[in-house]
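Q: I have two molecules that I believe assemble together. Could you output structure tokens for the complex as a whole instead of separate predictions?
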Amino acid sequence: MKNKVVVPDEKQISRRITKNKLAQGIFFLATLFGMVVLATLIIRIFSQGIGYLNIDFLTNYASRRPEDAGIKAALLGTIWVMSITIPVSLILGVGTSIYLEEYAPKNKFTRFIELNLANLAGVPSVVFGLLGLTVFVRLLGMGRSILAGGLTMSLLILPVIVVASKEAIRSIPQEQYEAAYAMGATKWQIIRTVVLPAATPGILTGAILSLSRGVGETASLLMIGAMTFIAYTPTSILDSFTILPIQIFSWASRPQAEFQAVAAAGSIVLLIILILMNSLAIVIRNKYSKRY
Amino acid sequence: MNKEETVQSVYSVKNFNLWYGNTQALKDISIEIPEKQVVAIIGPSGCGKSTFIKTLNRMVELVPTVKMKGSIHYNNEDIFKSNAKVEALRTEVGMVFQKPNPFPKSIYDNVAYGPRIHGIKDKKTLDEVVERGLKGAALWEEVKDRLSENAFGLSGGQQQRLCIARALAVEPEVILMDEPTSALDPLSTAKIEDLIHELKKDYSIIIVTHNMQQAARISDKTAFFLNGEIIEFGPTEKMYSKPDDKRTDDYISGKFG
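A: Yes, here they are, computed for all two components at once.
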């Protein structure tokens, strides 16, 4: 028998166990840091803003007097902008991802496009705002309207939706395609009956998460000139508008302490919307992933 | 005149070559596949047997780098002629795969999938086709009370019979089977083999198998593939008792492969 090379060494083993505990501690601290910051933020916002949060706050327009100030215009503006962004970004995003995954030949050119899509997802939103300002507001003459805002926001979240949808489509096993092809299905039939049903939960999850990024988005719409003081309800997509985060930003930049509290109340509303949207994404993901 | 030659050929393959990129996978294949018989294709891994049956329904063309030369006639029709539609060929030639691959849909919707994509919408017709398909695959008795349940709840063997039912529902003439029992336990395998015995009354069956005993049990004729070539093709009995080629003998008796 040969000499054993691997022999248990008490000291070496306890050193390894100590290292293991140390690693666990570091990761726990990292998590704790995030949790503490988040909790501080939430507590601060709630303690500051909860006093202003009532029905009047939701139904009043912005005002010079903090006690009368409300978020109605911003809330409606956000809803109007989203009602443009959701269909535009979903149709363009899902369409692009289906084309890239199912139809486009896999060559250098499509790889180049895919690489750029991933990069676009990381481009600062101000840049998208500049694009929206140049193309939608000026070139296409839409003015500082809900339409221009909605389209700009669509561009902003489009790359994220495309990337998420591509991932969802790519996770469908090849065997599923083969089964359908072998029965004489065309590509479009397979997309309709196999790909889309299987990819929808993933697509919706990605879409909702990126839309919730859009709801909190400020800089790009500030660039295209969303107003900060609106005292009427939009009646068409060509009206000017404001949105929640811009309204909050405008309140928070006022010197009076009362307006800081109003801004906090606005943040609570925004947070609740975001939590609702993210919960919806989780519900969809859990409901459908069980079936597959 | 030999007895086999009076049997009608469903497939007639002549001097067929296939390349994946620069790698030749099939070399000068010529074979006549008889109607309403079970033809087993055996050979070691990578010998081109899967490639060969995937060529018969042109599924091999899903690989973008594939190049082909030579002719394949299905019922005297050139399957590669320029106005031939793969969708039509695949309606007549069904396929069952190595791993059961039901859709994440109900048992009913799985079997109705083929008829539906071919435009059948009438509920009564679909009910009939689904029942006939499931009966044909010997699965009806086991699932008739739970047709609306998800197919993923079935056992592996049941899933594979569901895939056979799904192929039968398109009413094909030929069924290609690519190692249909390799992912199944012995009991489920036996069920599928019994089923193949039943099916050959109405269908021409071409089955790729790794299992030489299986080929001996179920097939009328056997083709032995090696390195992309057909070494020998003949009645299964003869192949297993006194093969013409020494390599066939070596493979069947387990000297390699």
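A: One point stands out. Residues 33 and 215 of chain A are 26 Å apart (CA to CA).
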